[in-house]
Amino acid sequence: MLVYILSRNSELYSTKRLVEAAEQREWEVRVIDYLKCSIEIMKGELKINYLGKELPKPDAIIPRIGASRTFYGTAMVRHFEMMDVFSVTGSLAIKRSRDKLRSLQILSKNGVDMPKTVFASNKSSAKDVIALSGGTPLVLKILEGTQGVGVVLVETLKAAKSVLDAFYGMDVNLLVQEFIEEAGGADIRVFIVDGEVVGAMKRQGAEGDFRSNLHQGGSASAHKLTRKEKSTALAAAKAMGLGVCGVDMIPSSRGPLVMEVNSSPGLEGIEKSTNIDIAGKIMDFIEKNASPEVDDEEKPKRKRRIKKDNIGA
Question: What distance in Å separates the CA atoms of residue 32 and residue 43, rounded to the nearest whole number?
Fold first, then answer.
């Protein structure tokens, strides 16, 4: 089995764990910086070059595409898909998940519950937007923000108007959401692989911070899902069409509410808090869906080869 991990940094915890999991199965694996790839498109022929050399066609790819590089990264994933290479996350699903507004529209259409959300142009009245979202306190989210960056809690009507006017004045696209106070700065990350829950953790925001992101100083612990939490997470993953994903939910008085479905969820927090081999679960997914094109008589001759390209962040 030949597997490419599309990652810009071979030293990241998630990338290293995926390499280790593949190595344990004696697969061939390469870490490929997708920004250093180029594609060739000809009649009836598709190729991918890396650092000036044509890449052999792999059996599977594991995309770890950064949010700021979604367009180029998904173009590479799509090209592999056109070459009939199995990808644990599809290019279209990645693009959908990265568009916060589009993902919420998809989740809503599929009956997945979420905080009430308002999106409007900068010509809309701030007062009307605030009223539609249920009034203050409320949460403002920049559409392009990640890992808790670009998320603001405003607690008064005056503050909300000021912040909305400021953002709209800079022509920034915003989502305005109701604030779920009873969540207490906590959320639940559910890790799903191939339509099954493989791990869940509860993340608690740092003191005084309503955001629970680990990158913002939050903490994590293993979490036993309720039946409703499990079914909600699975429904969200299915709606987004993601084979591997992290579903972020917050508890509320009306049940779990989905905040986001992450197409490149980190492995560190979930593996360390649950002691579950999540990387191994992803390899199980690949083994089930990608069959290496090797004749039976050639299989004993194949030797394990692990190659990590010397790439920067």
Answer: 26
